[in-house]
Design brief:
nine-stranded mixed beta sheet, Arc Repressor Mutant, subunit A, single chain, alpha+beta, three-stranded antiparallel beta sheet
Length: about 475
Amino acid sequence: MEYEAVIGLEVHVQLKTQTKAFCNCRIEFGSPVNSLTCPVCLGLPGSLPVLNKTALDYAIKVGLALNCSVQEFTKFDRKHYYYPDLSKNYQISQYDLPVCKDGFLDIQVEGQTKRIRIKRAHLEEDAGKLIHEPDKSLLDLNRTGIPLLEIVSEPDIHSPQEAHEYLSDLKMIVEYLEASDCDMEKGTLRCDANISLRPKGAEELGTKTELKNMNSFKGVKDALVYEIQRQNNLLENGGKIIQQTLLWDPKESKTVVMRTKEEAKDYRYFPEPDLPPFIISQEKISQVKSSLPELPKEKLQRFVKEYGLLEYDAGILVSNKEKADYSEKCFCAWTDKNKKPVVNWLIGPLASIASSSNLEIQQTGVTAKNLAELVDLVENKNLVSHLTGKSVLEEMVASQKTAQEIIQEKNLAQISDEGALAKEIEAVVKGNAKSVEDFKAGKANALMFLVGQVMKRTGGKANPKVVQEILKRRLSNA
């Protein structure tokens, strides 16, 4: 029997506030353990939470960017469960009246647009962190009370690739809004996946499992691939899927059982008694909506229309807001209407140099003006060859000098003067009689061999285009 995977994702985004969701404790990654706590985030008797206004603003902003309906009436609830990292044995979350609901995100999969519905986006506080050692478990409560926005998709995803595209697009949008760093290594973006299989064409959902502990988009994709295969093999052999929470073990590339999954009723939600319901006015919603920046897909289409970029190239450059801003500065510094030469250097040599140092192109220290100058010297003025230009760019990143300074200091300028090249070309022609005859016999590769010999004699400084033209004239007249 052929089965179809049905996947729903729960993405927890840590909002980029300076303080926690309901108290004034600072948020600082890497601080000494248990140094950023207070009676409120620890839930000590008599302490009273106060909602972080910025967290609510970010939630509204993300909801609007995801085409959600922002609720004018919203409230908080207590989600009760016991776990060692939850010091007060309940989590302040939202249950039946989330701040945002009924949105969608359109993704591109194999050239087709697919709409993934978003069920809800609700605010909640984070729990602490357990550090497991061979003979004990240690508890760090610094993370307790940090504001999270949980974005829950409908089960509209049917493959690991679709899940990857959804997460990538979602991350880009949140980063563009500057609502979160979305750094999975630091835990500011975390993803859980609910997955079940059903016979192809069936409407009823199968028994689901929940995947946790996926700390990269690749990890999400790998875990889903494994779990789909595991469930498929079990069903094909007459087995039964058990509703469980599974951890992904990236070292072993397999899932392990964490616990039997709780139902919502097991959490015993009830309204948070220490926080009033919140009224979000239409005026407030309109104000936040008007402050939304240009989002990735809008920027991509503008780059295509305004700068004549290919969609593929534009997609690479808008994948990161800072990268997109830097790229646009480069386009503006390059006065030619055709932006393709700049694009080629951005996504080619500069991207390669940046990647080797684990950087983004905007972090290399090469200003937009200096990059445009280099591209002009290579592409328009032919002052240096493309190969030498790459070396110059590497030096620009290392020294923060301009292309002109490096070319002058290292005497890298191409030799384009025909008089200066004539002696070297004549020597190559006399020393390679067979290649000369091959060229006259119609073998095009022979000409490129001769050009290469001239380049070798000049230490790579000869202008290959000029050399080629001189050789053609020289050999045609011979």
